Amino acid sequence: MLNSLPENIKAKYERLRPSILKRLEDFAQVPENKYFYELCYCICTPQSKARSAFEVQRILEERDFLHKPFNAASILREPAHYIRFHNTKAERLLEAREKFLEVKKLLKSDSSNSEKRDWIVGNIKGFGMKEASHFMRNIGYRDLAILDRHILKHLVEYRILEEIPQISSIKKYLEIEKLFLKFAQQINIPIDELDLFFWSSETGEILK
Q: Per-residue pLDDT averaged across 100-121, rounded?
């Protein structure tokens, strides 16, 4: 495991850091009335483009999906913002809406960040550890790893992992998250900043 980023990568990180910090501040300032639509975004992202999920989120909010529910499958299958498994995800959007009052209660509770994540994984269909971590990060929670393929690729590149793993259990997810956190501590860059840096290195933008 490296104790620091290569100098050229570190220089790139320093250039991007103001934008990364601004994005994290944006997440911390997301108002509560937007939380539901961040939940919708994270239902849509698996195996689909982040930009497409972002556009679907915008449309659902524009149509007041939380208060005026409807079957969103037609929106999810639009070519301009196509979401894979659109019928299943449309069902999960409606199910998440039914559970959202419980989610709001959870977020206001004294439970730890990891306990809140565990509840979401266990109670909201379509949410594994990655999606739950992503949702919580997008509304301002910190220090939860979003272990998507972009991140795993960089963990291999920096010799934290030998190869991109199949994360088939919560136990495996937590093992890799622990390694990622240890690496972040060693190079003295918060995991949330590393996440956005690795993401932007792959995609060319700092989205969410």
A: 97
